[in-house]
Amino acid sequence: MAKIFLSYSVRDGFDLARRIEGGLVKKGHRISIPVDFKVAGNWRNKSTKGLITADMLVAILTPSALESR
Fold this sequence. Notes:
The chain is of the alpha/beta class and 69 residues long. It has helices at 14-26, 43-53, 63-67; strands at 3-7, 30-32, 56-59. It is built from three helices and three strands; from the N terminus they run E-H-E-H-E-H. It starts with a strand and ends with a helix.
């Protein structure tokens, strides 16, 4: 199955991302989800690696995600 990178806003998308992750895992997909990214850490490197190694990107569009740069 596919390796999927989930992109979401931590402000209001975390719970929804976790529910989507659970459903995709049940279907046999592998999920890369940035749950442990910290602003002070190397979140950009982790995001880049997750995107490069993914077969697919799923963007979860919430009000905060739409307002984010």
